[in-house]
Write a structure and sequence with these properties.
The complex is a heterotrimer of chains A (449), B (516) and C (129). Chain A is α/β, with parallel strands linked by helices and 449 residues long. Chain A has helices at residues 8-17, 48-60, 81-87, 90-93, 105-122, 134-149, 162-172, 192-198, 220-229, 313-316, 329-366, 390-399, 429-440, 443-448, and strands at residues 67-68, 126-127, 153-157, 179-182, 203-209, 233-238, 255-259, 275-279, 291-296, 302-307, 370-371, 381-385, 402-403, 406-407, 418-422. In chain A, the strands form four sheets. Chain A has a seven-stranded mixed sheet, sandwiched between helices. In chain A, helix 7 (162-172) links the parallel strand 3 and strand 4. With 516 residues, chain B is an alpha/beta fold. Chain B has a domain at 104-356: 3-Layer(aba) Sandwich (Aspartate Aminotransferase, domain 2). Chain B is built from 17 helices and twelve strands. Chain B is globular. Chain C has one domain: OB fold (Dihydrolipoamide Acetyltransferase, E2P) (Beta Barrel), CATH 2.40.50. Chain C has four helices and nine strands. In chain C, strand 6 (55-61) and strand 7 (65-69) form a beta hairpin. The chains are: A alpha/beta (449), B alpha/beta (516), C alpha+beta (129). Chains in contact: A-B, A-C, B-C. At the A-B interface, helix 1, helix 2, helix 3, helix 4 and helix 5 of A face helix 2, helix 3, helix 4, helix 5 and helix 6 of B.
Chain lengths: 449, 516, 129
């Protein structure tokens, strides 16, 4: 087998040298009744070209050459090619967690840069070296707020991504702090009056997403004011990180939980993505996940090191702030490179293009259906209501090789025939016009054709 | 061995070489430099201040401004400061630092795979669903279980999912139970996980062989016990040969046996946890199944279980529909819920499947055999100079202790640091907790005899240094860019981000963050 | 190292000095030496009730955390603010760096604590192992 650097002769020689006549001698600890005496029923060993053929065939059965208006927590952005050139270097790809700082300064310095950039973008003081994704990050942020405040009531806006809310529920249900939902108002944002009624002295935190699941931007200062008045923390969850290029950062938040997939991480059918937690300085000791700190070596040279590890599982065990061990380091490196490529000016320019494309899409498609929450400020996603049911509409779009907006009926049935559309810098005017053309044809007109 | 050019010991693995210095990207930034160019807008321009009003960001984040070549040099230089599997062996116990095959990287980047949106129609995702289904089937066969979820993002996440499944099962029987038993040799994620699921941790002391004391276990298990979380082989590399008795003791009281699958590299193709009584377990695709560690992740932690736990699996679950196509089934009324959004770290599924296909049944078995052979080879070659705290047979990893070296004032951490000077990454120090001064060594199957011999040479040479010149070991490493770092100050006065002044803005970054 | 005679000790390596109704609590030199460089002390707030034998906080070094077990039962009246900015004081002077002061609810219970000589013997056994 070509990954194994031994010949049969070497195996025999090594066995002999250590006093065994056969490899079976090294497996006698396994009780005989459990030793496998047959081959595993997995596909036979394949040559490299066969492996590639298998996956090419699989890839061909996925969407290819379709225009896509899907967003909803996973966003299609351009990935600069230098990202893959760099992360595929063996020293990054095949390196271990940087516990031995002297021989992992590359990883550690890159994480330090990542932490800095996240703070800059979000307006927070500290950021960790990544969580699994935005959904688990939100759950961890809630647990953090519960630890900090010692309270166990949690409020979550219904305009937060439905799958994020499901994950928060799964985490919270056995820890005594399951969340209550706060409705959204006519403008698509959290209902501030309802929020005000719900926050009490027992509330640990209020969690909102901005831009929220409908694409609209929440009024963070107003929400913060309501939460803080009763001593509750404000957690802002951000699913579309590129928005921070042009939307004001949630500086009033206590904790920001972000999904950084938009920063150069491939869609890859749902993962791996890149969660990150950022917070105000005073919550440092309750922050889960790895943290990289700057320090000096014995000769006074600057270096970087994993720090405050006593919060973590390998020391704290059952009192750890989280059980996280492996995180998303390589994916975080992709985001670090992405942010370095675009930089201070590029992030604004990129976000601005997204804003422009979505405005054109909302105007153009909105003329063929009803744009929901039309007056509310949004980034690059919007909700369209149509007479036609979304399944039928999307089937017609597919015929033109267009993947339309996400059907919202299973999560927000009260919105009727509603779909969530996203336009990014990669969406073209032609694609938008084509989609509008399909929307313009009512089903009856299409049949008559 | 005579000192050569002042360098003591074997020079065969490494030689000093120039590496480039490189500051932080922020320190090389200068306004106006850029590394990107966007395509021109084909839709009307917009005025962001008008569109966004108070939500408009008035001041850009202070990100670096660099050209492409500077970015390439920056990260390339940083990479040269890292050790990696591609450079040589990592003897890290319980990490399974095996070769990360390149075909895995290639296939995960195929357009139809890399650009698949998780919400695209199932009719246009059959390739992705097939990959999920085939990997699931392979892993079920490898583990001897009946059902599986690929949703968890890493081992710890898998443990959380597994214990949630156990809890849901017990709940369905009318008593969620209160405690989870964990051996003191366990990885720290185990107790941390139990706590997150609302269970109290009960510690089980290991017996004199470093394994489970079955009589003690039998006394401990009662109707309040939800599960025992067991690593097998144990964290000292020993197979629990009383595993069936352990399973029986638990099952008699209606408790479950959870297995931490971190050490599957000793078992694949030779035995199956499902066959020896395990009810639920997690796998680490980034250990046993070759997906790259990437400096700390991403991983993937699938959870496999027996039929009794299948109804509780996180939703959605992949299944064939009446139309013969694969679908995600969300209709799972007893599901524990989602442990994360979407379906799991799909990119790692692709890699793990490619690894499985590259091996086939014979490759998988040979891999396990080579892993165990390599560990025992190292054990044999070092057992005369390093103390073996447990005389039980090792499987894929061997644990020594520093007992013979501490009399010279040298601890395992020092030996590990000196190993760096010999061109290796250190082994795992100070874990498991039941072995004071542990040296935990797992070579994996990816090491050739040559590399193993270099490692053995290095360890033997260091043992000699401990006798003849312990100071050299205590103050190691001597050949790295950076010497030992002041971790105390890093913890007392944490500096977790760059605070330098921005290019010529006239505004301090510290205050700028508050000035939006 | 000599252990002050005026203190009483626990097997978890805390010391307590009793003056009337007030107990002053810290950790011993042996403890600070085992922990290494101390980076953080997690102490309870004033007003917290502590119980003899129960955990009241923790002390962290770079690589380890140690729970603090109260030698006495009562209410916390003072917390040593210096340790928030200079936890290393415990390393340089463990017996002079108190962590909390407690108003005792049962002054009689200190009778079961170890006097200095017994504590020294206890450590000798621990290290001799």
């Amino acid at each position: 087998m070509r990954y194994l650097p031994k010949s049969d002769a070497e195996r025999a020689a090594m066995l002999k040298e250590i006093g065994f006549s056969s490899i079976d001698g090294l497996f006698t600890a396994i009780p005989e009744e459990y030793r496998l005496t047959r081959d595993l029923k997995v596909p036979r060993q394949m040559g490299e070209s066969e492996i590639i053929d298998y996956f090419k065939a699989a890839a061909a059965k996925n969407a290819n050459g379709y225009a896509s208006f899907l967003g909803a927590g996973a966003y299609r952005h351009y990935r600069p090619v230098v990202i893959d050139s760099l992360v595929q270097r063996g020293e990054f790809l095949t390196s271990y967690t940087p516990y031995q700082a002297e021989i992992t300064q590359g990883t550690l310095q890159a994480i330090f840069e990542f932490q800095t950039m996240i703070c800059e973008l979000t307006g927070m003081d500290i950021a960790n070296a990544s969580m699994y994704d935005g959904s688990t990050g939100a759950a961890e942020a809630v647990m953090m707020a519960v630890r900090v405040t010692g309270r166990d009531n949690v409020l979550v806006a219904r305009s937060v991504h439905p799958e994020y809310r499901e994950v928060m529920h799964t985490y919270a249900q056995h820890q005594g702090h399951d969340a209550s939902e706060v409705a959204y108002g006519q403008d698509g944002r959290i209902d501030l009056a309802a929020l005000e009624q719900s926050v009490t002295e027992e509330t640990a935190c209020v969690l909102v997403q901005s831009p929220n699941f409908f694409g609209v931007i929440e009024d963070i200062p107003a929400i913060a004011e309501i939460a803080h008045r009763k001593g509750a923390l404000l957690i802002v969850s951000i699913a579309e990180a590129v928005s921070l290029g042009i939307v004001r950062p949630p500086v009033e938040a206590d904790i920001v939980s972000m999904e950084a997939q938009s920063f150069g991480v491939a869609l890859s059918y749902g993962g791996p993505y890149c969660g990150v937690l950022a917070a105000k300085e005073k919550y440092l000791r309750q922050m889960p996940g790895r943290l990289v700190g700057e320090t000096k070596d014995t000769a006074g040279r600057r270096g970087f090191v994993l720090t405050l590890s006593t919060r973590e599982q390998h020391i704290r065990r059952e009192k750890a702030t989280s059980n996280i061990c492996t995180n998303q380091a390589l994916v975080a490196l992709m985001t670090t490179i992405f942010l370095t490529v675009y930089g201070k000016q590029g992030m604004r320019e990129l976000a601005l293009q997204n804003l422009a494309k979505a405005k054109y899409a909302a105007d153009t498609l909105g003329a063929q259906g009803k744009l929901l929450f039309p007056q509310t400020r949004r980034f690059h996603e919007f909700v369209l209501q149509t007479d036609e049911d979304p399944e039928q509409l999307n089937a017609r779009l597919l015929e033109k090789k267009i993947i339309g907006g996400l059907d919202l009926r299973k999560w927000y049935p009260e919105l009727g025939n509603a779909t969530l559309w996203c336009a990014t810098e990669l969406t073209t005017k032609d694609q938008i016009d084509a989609a509008a053309g399909v929307l313009a044809e009512t089903p009856v007109a299409a049949e008559v054709r | 061995m005579a000192a050569k050019n002042g360098f003591t010991g074997t020079t065969r693995k490494v030689t000093a070489h120039l590496t480039q210095n490189e500051g932080l990207s922020f320190e090389k930034s200068s306004p106006g430099k850029r590394g990107y160019k966007l395509a021109p807008l084909d839709v009307p321009e917009v005025d962001p201040a008008a569109l966004l009003g108070k939500a408009h960001r008035s001041r850009n984040a202070e990100l670096p401004e660099l050209s492409e070549i500077e970015i390439i040099r920056h990260f390339t230089r940083l990479s040269t400061w890292n050790y990696a599997i591609d450079l040589g062996m990592y003897p890290l116990g319980s990490c399974t630092m095996k070769y990360n095959p390149r075909v895995n990287e290639f296939v995960s980047r195929l357009e139809g795979i890399a650009e698949a949106h998780p919400y695209q129609p199932e009719s246009l995702s059959q390739g992705a669903l097939e990959i999920v289904k085939l990997l699931q089937d392979c892993l079920i066969e490898i583990t001897g279980m009946d059902a599986i979820t690929l949703q968890p993002a890493a081992g710890a996440h898998g443990e959380f999912t597994g214990i949630l499944l156990a809890r849901a099962y017990h709940q369905s029987k009318g008593n969620p139970r209160k405690t989870v038993i964990i051996p003191d040799s366990a990885h720290g994620t185990n107790p941390a996980t139990a706590a997150t699921c609302g269970y109290q941790v009960v510690n089980l002391k290991s017996n004199s062989m470093g394994g489970v004391d079955v009589s003690a276990l039998a006394r401990m298990v009662n109707e309040d016990t939800a599960a025992l979380m067991l690593t097998n082989p144990s964290t000292i590399g020993v197979f629990e040969n009383e595993i069936h008795r352990i399973a029986d003791v638990l099952h008699d009281k209606g408790a479950l046996l959870y297995m931490d699958g971190a050490n599957m590299n000793a078992l694949v193709g030779k035995t199956r946890p499902g066959d020896f009584g395990v009810d639920v377990m997690h796998l680490n695709l980034h250990k046993t199944f070759s997906t790259p560690h990437g400096g700390g992740g991403p991983g993937s932690g699938p959870v496999a279980s027996k039929k009794i736990l299948e109804p509780f699996l996180p939703a959605p679950v992949v299944a064939h529909g009446a139309d013969g196509l694969l679908h995600w089934s969300y209709d799972r009324p007893q599901s524990v819920g989602r442990v994360r959004m979407l379906y799991g770290n799909f990119g790692m599924f692709v890699r793990a499947l490619a690894y499985t296909l590259a091996n086939g049944p014979d490759g998988l078995r040979q891999t396990t055999e080579d892993a165990v052979l390599n560990a025992n080879y190292i054990r044999k070659k070092l057992e005369d100079i390093y103390e073996l705290p447990y005389n039980t047979p090792s499987m894929h990893e061997v644990v020594f202790s520093d007992k013979r070296q501490t009399k010279n004032g040298v601890k395992t951490g020092d030996i590990a640091k000196r190993l760096i000077d010999y061109g290796f990454h250190p082994y795992t120090t100070s874990f498991p907790l039941i072995v004071p001064g542990a040296l935990m060594i797992e070579p994996t199957e990816s090491e050739s005899r040559e590399e193993l011999d270099l490692f053995v040479d290095a360890m033997r040479q260091i043992a000699r240094e401990v006798e003849e010149n312990p100071e050299l070991v205590i103050t190691a490493p001597h050949s790295t860019r950076i010497s030992r770092l002041d971790e105390t100050t890093a913890a007392r006065k944490p500096v977790l981000r760059w605070h330098g002044p921005p290019a010529d803005d006239g505004v301090e970054v510290d205050t700028a963050a508050k000035e939006w | 190292m000599s252990y002050p005679e005026k203190y009483k000790y626990t097997r978890e390596h805390e010391w307590v000095e009793i003056a009337g109704n007030v107990g002053t609590v810290g950790i011993t030199d042996y403890a600070q030496n085992s922990l290494g460089d101390i980076v953080f002390v997690d102490a309870p707030k004033v007003g917290t009730k502590v119980e003899k034998g129960a955990v009241f906080g923790s002390v962290e070094s770079v690589k380890a955390v140690s729970d603090l077990y109260s030698p006495v039962t009562g209410t916390v009246t003072e917390v040593n603010a210096e340790l928030a900015s200079s936890p290393e004081k415990i390393n340089s002077d463990a017996h002079g760096s108190w962590i909390i002061k407690v108003e005792l609810s049962d002054p009689g219970e200190v009778g079961t604590l170890l006097p200095a000589a017994d504590y020294e013997k206890f450590i000798a056994e621990e290290t001799g192992k």
